[in-house]
Structure formats: C-alpha cells, structure tokens
Amino acid sequence: MKEQVRKLWQLCFNDSEAFIDLYFRLRYSNDVNIAISSGDEVIAALQLLSYPMTCDGEVVPTAYVSGACTHPDYRNRGVMRELLSQAFARMDRSGVVLSTLIPAEPWLFDYYARSGYASLFHTACTPFTDAGGTLPADAPAFVRSCDYRPEEYAYLNRKLRERDCCIQHTKEDYRVLLADLQLGGGFIGTLRRGSNVLALAFLYPDEDGGWQVGEVVADAPVWREWLLRCVCRHVRQTTIQVLGPVDETARTAVRPLGMMRIIKVHQLLRLYAAAHPEVDINIALTDEQLSANSGYYYMTGGKCTFSTEPLLGSHRQFTPATLAEWLFAGRHPYMSLMMN
User: What is the CATH number assigned to the segment(s) 2-96?
Assistant: First the structure.
C-alpha cells in the first residue's frame, strides 16, 4: 500500500523527491492512511495525522488531513467525497473532536466547505526590519541550531500551550519538523541566557532569496525583537517576513490558511458551555456527513444537553461549518509549522 500511495502522491503533487522520501519515512504509515482502490491501483488516498489543540482551557484531539489526492483519471466522480466520508467515520470512532486541513489550492476552500469545513485558521504576515545600531554588550546570546535539543522543544511546547485554539506539536512531530527544516536549509534561532531560552524562531529560506519566520515565541516583546534583529544580521537581510497569529491591533496582511470541521459536536459544545456559563442558546444542528451529530442541543448554566427531538422554545439553525464559525468567532484559531 505504501508504495502505491507514494506513486499517487508523486503524480498529484509537485514535491521534491527528497521531501517525499522524508514524508513517507517519518510521517506516513498504513495505520494513518485511508485509500480507495480500483482493482490493484490506489486511486485516492489521505492520511490522518494526530495533533493536540488547546481549546477553552483543555487540550482536545484533532486529526489533520494530509496528502488528500485523487488520480487525475478519477476526478469529479465523487471519489474524494467518499474518502472523506470514510475519514469522518474513522475519526468519530477514534474520539477525534476536530478535523483540520490546509487546502493545497485556493479553489479547494469551497470544495471542503461542502463537507462541513469552515475557513477558520488565518495567518498574519508582517515584515520585520532591523533598525540597525549595536546590540547591547549584555544582550542574551544568539544560538543557531537544527538538531533536537530538549530545552528548545520544551520551550516551544510551553509557549504554544499558552495560546487558546492553537494546534500543538508533540515531541515526535517536532523531530519531523527538524528533519524538514534541515532539508529546506532552514534553522532554529534562539536567544539565551546560559541554558535558559528567552525566545525561539523557526527560519525558512524563501524562493526569492529572503528569509521567512514560520514561528516565533518569546518570554517578552523585547526578547522577540532582539531575536529577530539577531536573525536579520545572521542571514544578512535588512527585512524578513514573520508569520504569526492574527493581531487585530496591528496592520498586517492576513491570509486564509486552514480549515476546521467539527467531528464530536456534543463533546465540543460541553467544553464550550463549561467555559462560557453565561451563554444560553438552543441549537438545531443538521450534519449531512455525520448523522449522529444531527439533533438539538441546549446550552445553559454552563452545561449542554442533547435531544433527538426538539424541546420547547425556538432554536438557532446550524450546520457543522456555521457552528464552528459561531463557536470560534473572534478567537482566531491558529496553526503553524504544518509542513504545508
């Protein structure tokens, strides 16, 4: 199965052989793969990769849809729709609360929306320019690395968990990110005082000869700025591009990145109700792909109950996509370092 899926990947995606080797060596397994075959040929496949996500003070399991592709000869026949249906059923059985993905092409946002996904993950791209001048003599040390260092992973993990509605990276996934970083000629830059990490950034070279920060976390704004200044000087660039969460107070270019689909509606609503006891709402949900989600949800006093039949009172109508949009409105769900 692995070699057949790899051949389909090579046919459908414009990735380098080196990246494909890395993916199928470190990320792919038959256990995470779902495929549809015609005879002996795999005509569609995708992988479900596990990621934790912070949500309302808890960490919920999510499944990231990776490598979704259909053989060109079988497109527009409903094959991917059937594959997604199988994926939803597997996620539901596995206790996955949310499914996420990053569309490979802009037109795919509309395609996945028809299966209940909502475009909720955005990223802000902000140029950072080194103002020049000399860094203070007592400034923390700048360290470049690309090998696994436990203190760097621990620091990134701690900082990402401080963000609500944020995809997290396990230690295993972090090692894969490092392999991809090395493959692309990137590196991790840290600001340190002794063994203490004060700020950390993932750096990737872009196609135009510049550099892009795929993620940056810091204990204080001053350490973030100092790290980015050190990075600029290290790569000999006056300006670098920094990707990060949407900040409504800053003037930055915001672009859509990924989508979310609710798999376990009642579980997510119970979590939301507990975190927002002031919310009082009756919900009527229709889920065409996961019929077990369809029904009536009553949220009041910090609790959420479910009924297959409507009770007294008016109901607000939702689909999985519009419900996700309502639940995460103004919260700016975020993902980074997804090897997209």
Answer: 3.40.630.30
